[in-house]
Amino acid sequence: MMIFERWFLVIFSIVCLLVLIKFIPKNKKRDAWILFLFLQVITWPAGLIAVEMGWIEYPTQLLPDANNYNRTSFSFEFFFFPIVAIMFSLYFPKRKYWYLVLLYYVGVSGFFTMFEVVLERTTTLVTYHEWKWYWTFITVIISLFINDLFYRWCKKGLIVVREHEN
Q: Which of 82, 64, 97 is nearest to 143 (CA)?
């Protein structure tokens, strides 16, 4: 069973890389890096707290000895969720009607939460102890909000430099 989970992580990682290549425009690569790295600043300590408190566990990792050094999920906290955050912020609805923004947050967070719940029930990739699905939903919304807020703040200070043709 553990072999299936590792293969799942490998294949899903490849799919995520292909999504990045296909859906991040060249002029948004710097923005994607900002989003990717800043979300890791949020997810690493939050993931450590949840794991160290015994609320959630990630028994199967992509790298077999990873739990000896870091018991959070490297794949989820440092790769999959940051990619979701990139797509979330780069494709945030331009029209800022409150109900569209709310629907966007609920839709993306709900999809990510459902994905994790399915994995929790059918694989050994994640195990809930004291953790509940609604904690994932709430923390995903909060993380996406903070990450997008930071991204918009950073973007205000970015200067577009255009090359002059001679």
A: 82
Name the DSSP class of 42.
H
pLDDT in tens, 39-91: 999 998 999 999 999 999 999 888 777 777 778 888 898 899 999 999 999 99
pTM: 0.88
Structure tokens at 126: 């994640």
Burial track 62-86 (b if 16+ CB lie within 10 A, e otherwise): beeebbeebbbbbbbbbbbbbbbbb
Query: Nearest-CA neighbor of 9 among 48, 58, 69, 46?
Result: 58
- Largest CA-CA distance found in the chain, in angstroms, rounded: 64
Per-residue tokens: 159 = 């200067």
Ramachandran region, residue 54 (left: φ > 0; alpha: ψ -120 to 50; beta: rest): left
- State phi, psi for 30 to the nearest 5 degrees: -65, -40
